[in-house]
Amino acid sequence: MSRLLVRRPSPRLADGEVTHIGRTSVDPALAQRQWEAYVDVFRSRGWEVIEIDPADEQPDGVFVEDAVVVFGDLIVLCRAGAESRRGEAPTVRDAVAATGLETAEIVAPGTLDGGDVLKIGSTVYVGASSRTNADGIAQLTALLAPRGWQIVAVPVERVLHLKSGVTALPDGTVVGFEPLVDDPAAFATFEAVPEEHGTAVVVLGPDEVLMSSDAPETAARYEARGLRVVATPITEFEKLEGCVTCLSVRIRD
Asked: Strand pairing partners for 61?
C-alpha cells in the first residue's frame, strides 16, 4: 500500500514565505482547486490519502514535505528553518504517530527542511541551505548512517531548497534547470532541463512521473526517455516557491 500525507491550503496561503523570488498575487480559490486535482492524481492510482489536520493560521502549512521525511520504515520529523513555520509541527506529529512507523525528530539547534532532502537509492543528498543547517545535517546523519544510508551535503544558495533546483527521475538521473543549480557536479548523474518548472518530478512508478504543467518542453523530453508524464497545474504554489514534491509526503509500504 502507498500512503500520501497532505494538508489542504490555508486561507492565508497568499501570506506564505518567499525568499528568492518576488511576491505576486495568489488566488486561494484556484490554489484549492489545483491542490484537489493534485491529490486526485494519487487517489486515482490507489494511494491512500491521509489529510493532516488543517492549520489555517499557518500560511505555508500546505507544503508538508518540509515537515517530514520518510526513510523506509523510519519517519524523521523536521525542525523548520523558518521560525514562522514551526507552528505546523504539532498537527504533523499527530498524523505521523497514526502511521504506526518508527519516528525520530530533529531538535534545536538543528534545522532541517524536507525540501532539502533528495533520496536516490541509498544516497541522501541534503542541501546546506538557508533553511537546513550543519547541526540538522549532523543529526540526520547520526540517524541514518547506522541504517546504511550515505549522506552527501551539497551547497544551496541559488534557490530556497535543494529540491527547488533538482529532483531525480526513476532511474536516478538528477534533473535540474542549470542556472538554479549551485553544483551539478555534486551528483553522480545530472541532466539539465530547459524550463525552471521542469526540474521537479514526483516518481509515481518505475516509468511514470508527476510534474508541473508549466514545462511542456521538459515533459516532451521525459516522454522521449520512455516515461509516462502526468502534468498538473500548480501555478499558485509555484508563486510561493513550491513545486509538485512540496505538496505531499509519500509513504511506500
From this structure: none
- 48 CB neighbour count, 10 Å cutoff: 12
Q: Are 8 and 62 in contact (CB under 8 A)?
A: yes
Sign of torsion, CA 169 89 236 45? Answer: positive
One-letter-per-residue 3-state SS of 149-210: CEEEEEECCCCCCHHHHEEECCCCCEEECHHHCCCHHHCCCEEECCCHHHCCEEEEECCEEE
Portion of the chain with pLDDT greater than 70, in percent: 100
Examine the residue annotation and report whether 78 is marked as an active-site residue of this protein: no
Give the mean pLDDT of 192-220.
Answer: 98
Identify the active-site residue in 78, 161, 197, 243: 161
**pLDDT for residue 28:** 95
Determine which one of 78, 197, 243, 246 is catalytic: 246
Q: Is 246 a catalytic residue?
A: yes
From CA 224, how far away is CA 204, in angstroms rounded? Answer: 17
**How long, in residues, is the chain?**
253
